[in-house]
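Suppose a colleague, Dr. K., hands you the sequence of a protein chain of 123 amino acids and asks what its three-dimensional shape might be. Before reaching for any lab equipment, you can write down a predicted structure in token form. Begin with the sequence itself:
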Amino acid sequence: QVQLVESGGGLVQAGGSLRLSCSASGLAFSSYAMGWFRQAPGKEREFVATISWSGTSTYYADSPKGRFTISRDNAKNTVYLQMNSLKPEDTAVYYCAAKLRAGSRWPGDYDYWGQGTQVTVSS
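The predicted structure, expressed as tokens, is then:
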């Protein structure tokens, strides 16, 4: 049974930082590209970042580019999202997702999802 478990969310002031983690089990982690998505209340789920199975290739949405960094540790079956210079508009539930082989910015392309972790940025 595949499980993706996010952690590290919380309440932070604008300008602060958080580091999200997503621990995977039940799949050949190093064969999967990983993605981070977020969903704010009343809005559709949106792409944040993706990283290739090897970790050598990353791609970001325009909004978090330059502030967020996605990384992975295949030995620990974990993907991370370092979020710096947080803004109130970053407030959302953040989800990690796994996609076999190449990454994608489209949620429908992903095979497995975590249950999400709440990030709230106060102004």
